Amino acid sequence: MATPAPLAVPAVPPVTDFHAWPDPHGRFGQFGGQYVAETLMAPLAELTEAYERLRTDPEFLAELDRDLTHYVGRPSPLYHAERLSAHVGGARIILKREDLNHTGAHKINNTIGQGLVAKRMGKPRIIAETGAGQHGVASATVAARLGLKCVVYMGSTDIERQKINVYRMKLLGAEVVPVTSGSKTLKDALNEAMRDWVTNVADTFYIIGTVAGPHPYPMMVRDFNAIVGREARAQMLKEYGRLPDAITACVGGGSNAIGLFHEFLNDREVRIVGAEAAGEGIGSGLHAASLAAGRPGVLHGNRTYVLCDDNGQIAETHSISAGLDYPGVGPEHAFLKDAGRAEYVGVTDAEAMEAFHLLARMEGILPALESSHAVAQAMKLARGLPKDGLVLCNLSGRGDKDVHTIAAREGVTV
Amino acid sequence: MSRIDQRFASLKAAGRTGLIPFVTAGDPAPEHTVALMHALVAAGADLIELGVPFSDPMADGPVIQHASERALARGVGLADVLRWVGEFRQRDADTPVVLMGYLNPVEIHGYARFASEAVQAGVDGVLLVDCPLEESEVTAPLREAGLAQILLAAPTTAPERLDRLCASAEGFLYYVSFAGITGAAKLSTADIAARVADIRAKSRAPVAVGFGVRDAESAKAIAGFADAVVIGSALVERLAGAASEAEITGRVAAFLRPVREALDAR
Asked: What's the rounded Cα separation, in Å, for the pair B232 and A77?
């Protein structure tokens, strides 16, 4: 028998320490990197240099810690959703209550961090892109708090479905710029913000809201959100005496998910599951499940899994939740998928809606539509585990912003 | 000697400044793209930059983004662009063609497959906007196939980095004359002159200057110190909406001829 030809793709050595990434080039295995135009290389180098210095600077970390405690309201509690768990009839579902943070989502963990970096770098103007509006609100909030000028780019489709958050940003003193190109959603807002940054880099700091974009953003945004997992892991050990059997979070760009997952990556006994937006179902083509249904490609400055056609054109995605409506995903998630450390599965609009109503009626919590995907996945995981099992779910944001979307979907006039 | 090197050598011998128009493949009309390329040459182009449409052109301004969107709406893909270059080559064996675009369409097409098809079609160089030198490992098959790696340099490029770009540039080095997106803002000629003189002293490849060249006057201002002038957004804007071949050819001539004359009159 002929010897099979060696594989063209070099074998990936097994990962021994998941906390050792990215490498100095900003790569997570084959993913990540800095796929940007020449004009952005200098600003990225400036940012990388500044952030590498600050991430171990005790004074900076102390300032961040103070703000997280006294302004954001950390630590956020763990909450055992007893009635929901009983209804599901499986393991205990434990919610990490990021929805209780100031501004109502995990996004503030990152914007506080980047806002302080901007201040230290002497940049008087910040810009941000936003999908659901949560990151825009969190950026506008931090800008107000630090006395910085703030411009938020938002797709005109998203502006329509997230009117409340648009007004919140304006009340906080931010300028909201509608983006009417392409699909008029998050990816187009990101393109537009990049353009602004390229043009105004001398006085402008770009606060990216998720773990995507060119290095150092995926690392920096992860670092600022990793407090979620650090707290949750310690809280689990303190309150339940052990680590959870499984942890889950919703994945759009993937910032709240990496925030929860990161501290648990080397705990190999903990199952890690990311819930992507399957929209009308992955088979329908109307979804935003980049990891579950996409392929490796290059988008927004990094190599990652993307949803695109055979010509390499980025696909228009669909999800009931604007925050998950993104055709790429953070490169670290792509890495974790290929390394087999995390699983990524689709949760449909309908499943998310069902989870939303259950959590509202049984626990008195209105979750964000994004977070409802994680709750639906937590219910699936709990069902497969015994009653003394533990499923930890990141409740990344509250659902007040989604009330109009839900009413419209259910034919109710508010 | 490659077609690009040959072209720059003869420009230098003649003491002329090169004219490099940029158009988006498939815009304003996919069926007339080949005719458009011939019209560019007839109006004085020395080299053609052909944009490969992409859904998320992060580094481009609204004019070229809209051209991309129009082409995509009419179903233009990378395979069409390569086919058009092949057709163009049947009647023009001398004018170098550089494809300008973003990485993802090439990545999905496959680097090795793209490289061999592009060479076959008669493409001479490739400028992948979102593939800086640091990430150019992935594009090795393109260089190995003989496609020139066109690199960008910007006003913000740090000196030691510029040295590396100058050492790695193939075909020509494309200097973007201000730190913004394509087609915006005004240029300060004195600043560009100083920077370009510095780059030309270091670079093994000729230097083309673009981003913000709008008409004969601004092209002429740059012609004094650059090996070539790239003119993109202003031309794409002028072509938008032209439907027939005659209309496209007419608009190209009306726009480009004065630029050509201004460059030559210097």
From this structure: 56
Determine the Cα–Cα distance for residues A93 and A247; give it in Å rounded to an integer.
10
Q: What is the mean pLDDT of residues B225-252?
A: 95
pLDDT tens column, B155-175: 889 999 999 999 999 999 999
Exposure b/e, A4-40, CB count within 10 A at least 16 = b: eeeeeeeeeeebeebeebbeeebbbbbbbbbbbbbbb
- Computed over every residue of chain B, the mean pLDDT equals 93
One of A76, A85, A96, A107 is an active-site residue; which one?
Answer: A107
Chain-wide mean pLDDT for chain A? 94
Q: Over pLDDT 90: what percentage of chain A?
A: 86
A184: nearest CA partner in chain B: B56
The shortest C-alpha distance from A181 to chain B (Å) reads: 8
Specify whether B49 is catalytic.
yes
Statement: residue A7 has pLDDT above 80: no
Show me where the domains of chain B are located: 3-265
The count of CB pairs under 8 A between chains A and B is 126
Q: Do B180 and A198 touch (CB under 8 A)?
A: yes
CATH number belonging to domain B3-265: 3.20.20.70
Q: Is B5 one of the annotated active-site residues of the chain?
A: no
Provide the whole-model pTM.
0.94
To the query of whether residue A170 is one of the catalytic residues in this protein, the response is: no
